[in-house]
Task: structure prediction
Amino acid sequence: MAKVSPRVQRVADQLQRELATLIQLEVSDPRVGMVSVTGVRVSRDLAYADVYVTVMGSVDGDTGLAPGVPLEKAGDMDKLEIEASIKALNSAAGFLRTLLSKRLSLRITPKLTFHYDESVARGQYLSSLIDRALAEDSEHDA
Result:
């Protein structure tokens, strides 16, 4: 893997800060819910940027499902919500790029592509596995 230059890293950090603010304040698409920008990877020529986001929503316990719908369907609803948010962000990428070009003093504003960052969900899953293993160990000791 090629080493990232300090300038590319600074641009990526600045893009992450600006995009977090712009998505929160300027994007009015109802499909975009609570979105957190977790990382930005910029190409070496600063022409393209992959933006990684997490979508906060019904994972917190409020499934938003109609009464009588099984809880197993909550995962499917979350996936649909995530896909809709990513699709909405990708459709708003040109608008966000225009706003970024006005805020940043770069010769070329990178073309944005949004991706879902699964690291937070994976971390929560691993944490729940560890908690479950600790609970089972304490039951066996008793």
Summary: The chain has one domain: 6-141. DSSP finds four helices and three strands in the chain. The radius of gyration is 19 Å. Residues 6-141 form a domain with the GMP Synthetase; Chain A, domain 3 fold (CATH 3.30.300.20).
